[in-house]
């Protein structure tokens, strides 16, 4: 589990901008294909640019699992990446079965939907 979360964080920090944290999400499509997405910078809060929101549009319906990871430059490691209420609702509507998200440096939690 941690390997997927670390890989999602590493994918997210490849973006070059001035944010202090980055969120990456990996999902496994129903056909077994690995799909990736990252959050995007925005001047205003907008859940449509969250990594989970972008990911489910690529995944389609019925994905067995989604990994969400947040990397914080200030701590130099993984941080809390629990999906916001909007993203959680979107993940449910796309019938994602399970979400695994980072909660700290080497910790994570699972959410069954």
Summary?
The chain has helices at 2-12, 51-59, 85-93, and strands spanning 21-28, 34-38, 65-72, 77-79, 98-104, 107-112.
Main sheet attributes: strand count, strand direction, barrel closure = 6 strands, mixed
Amount of beta strand: 25-35%
What's the overall average pLDDT, rounded?
Answer: 90
Structural class: alpha+beta
> Would you list the SSEs in sequence order as H and E?
HEEHEEHEE
The level of helicity is 25-40%
Give the N-to-C terminal Cα separation. 18 Å
For this structure, the quaternary state is single chain
Number of helices: 3
The low-confidence runs, each spanning 5 or more residues with pLDDT under 50, are: none
Radius of gyration: 13 Å
Q: What is the 3D shape? A: globular
Number of strands: 6
Please, could you describe this protein's structure?
Helices cover 26% and strands 33% of the residues. The chain has helices spanning 2-12, 51-59, 85-93, and strands at 21-28, 34-38, 65-72, 77-79, 98-104, 107-112. The protein is globular, with a radius of gyration of 13 Å. The relative contact order is 0.21. Strands 1, 2, 3, 4, 5 and 6 form a 6-stranded mixed beta sheet that branches. The longest helix has 11 residues, at 2-12. It contains 3 helices and 6 strands. By secondary structure, the protein is α+β, with helices and mostly antiparallel strands.
